Amino acid sequence: MSFDGIDRRRFLLLAAAPLLVAQKAAAPHARESMLQMNGYAVNAETPLALLTEYVTPNELFFVRSHWIPRTPDPKKWRLTIDGEVDRSGEITLSELKKLPHAEATCVLQCAGNGRGLYSPPLPGVQWRYGAVGNARWTGVRVRDVLEHAGVKPSAKHLHVFGSDDPPGKVPPFHRSIELEKVLADGILAFAMNGEPLPAAHGAPLRLIVPGWAGDHWMKWIVRLSPQAEAQKGFYMETAYRYPLTPGAPGVAFKPEEMKPVTELFVKSNITTAPAKTRAKHASEIRGFAFSGAPDIAKVEISDDDGATWQEASLDPRHDPYAWRLWSHRWTPSRAGTVRLCARATDSRGGVQPREATWNQSGYLQNSWHFIDVEVTA
Ligand SMILES: Nc1nc2c(c(=O)[nH]1)N[C@H]1C(S)=C(S)[C@@H](COP(=O)(O)O)O[C@H]1N2
Ligand SMILES: [Mo]
Questions:
Q1: 341 CA to middle of ligand 2, Å?
Q2: pLDDT tens track for 87-104
Q3: Which domain holds residue 343?
Q4: Residue 161, helix vs strand vs coil
Q5: Which of 21, 145, 154 is nearest to 80 (CA)?
Q6: Ligand 1 midpoint to CA 288 (Å)
Q7: For the whole model, what pTM was predicted?
Q8: Does residue 106 sit in the same domain as residue 45?
Q9: Which residues pair with 277 in a beta bridge?
Q10: DSSP assignment of 87-120, as one string?
């Protein structure tokens, strides 16, 4: 079975391959590098060692799809707009593209990225580091589309529907998002990194929500419906909720003690570090950092478990809610196994914690990322 150029059997074979460690980035850009996470719809993360570019290439960008998508035919495709609007109706893709274009380079991260790192283990896709990427998205502003339809003041939530359909009685991936956020920053994207939006990433149209977790970024959009109330159902009321107060394994929260996952948490990962090096010998450590805040203020590196920190250099490229690449020339002072770690601080002063807050769905894991380096004398 082939989907958007991805050979599913190859993905399944890859599932058995050992996970790459984030050391020595050298592999070529190819779908072959992607790590399929289960055998149903495509859920593939990018090996961390390949996330070294400011803009993540489309063919390396992680894929998270709840159900096998039914990619709409762009010629027959229509966007239905109904609900709390003065002029409900349908728009074709070419009509939509006549609105002023908007562009954003920003991070898309699955809320569950890093779930597989929580202990004790949690159910769900066992993402490690690579359910994240940074891309340049082109489309039209949600604001322009909704103003065109005459959105009413009574509307507070935008219900967004994709064309994917789950099997049997499985709940559909139906979502809504606060109108305030989506009017401020939301883009309906038809292009990704200068190419038509790939099928796996939601062609012909998907939602871009800069700074917010991937569950808000609806793919294969066919209908927008502004409403007074939030959407109901499993993917609003049960999934994608985070405890209001820190939890611990075994603590079950009541629904009223949970809030929706929205902004990403400040996080940094090491993508490049030597597996082996010599004491007093400099080598380059690299990585990326991002947050639900628009920018990263600093990234620090420690080789003594956080006792002391050295500031990394930030790459000059940055856009609101994009990731920031960083690099650091690191010289180990002594031989032995040295644990390196990185910690990011965002533009609002949010600091990446040593330990992510445990939560029962394993969302937004952002613990310091540790890498072992063998240092010889
Ligand atoms: N229609 C639809 N949209 C969806 C999903 C889905 O299953 N169906 N998955 C969501 C989740 S949980 C994530 S993390 C992102 C992943 O986007 P990507 O596959 O382009 O990386 O899409 C979101 N949009
Ligand atoms: Mo996700």
A1: 26
A2: 999 999 999 999 999 999
A3: 267-376
A4: strand
A5: 145
A6: 22
A7: 0.90
A8: no
A9: 375
A10: S-EEE-HHHHHTSPEEEEEEEEE-TTTTGGGSSS
Other Cβ atoms less than 10 A from the Cβ of 321: the count is 25
Query: Does residue 300 sit in the same domain as residue 355?
Result: yes
Residues 137 and 185 in one domain: yes
Residue 312 has, within 13 A of its CA and on its CB side, a CA count of 33
Q: Which residues line ligand 1 (CB under 6 A)?
A: 61-66, 108, 110, 162, 164, 173, 201-202, 214-215, 217-220
CA distances (Å), origin 118, targets 4, 34, 75, 112, 229: 32, 22, 44, 11, 34
Q: Residue whose CA is closest, atom 12 of ligand 1? A: 215
pLDDT tens digit sequence for 208-253:
999 999 999 999 999 999 999 999 999 999 999 999 998 888 888 8
Cα dist from 108 to 251, 337, 371, whole Å: 29, 34, 24
Q: Atom 9 in ligand 1: which residue has the minimum CA distance?
A: 65
CA-closest residue to ligand 1 atom 15: 214
Domain count, the chain: 3
CA atoms of 255 and 120, how far apart (whole Å): 22
Whether 62 is covered by a domain: the verdict is: no
Give the number of whichever ligand sits closest to the CA of residue 108.
Answer: 1
User: What spacing in Å lies between the alpha carbon of 19 and ligand 1's midpoint?
Assistant: 23
Is 68 contained in some domain? no
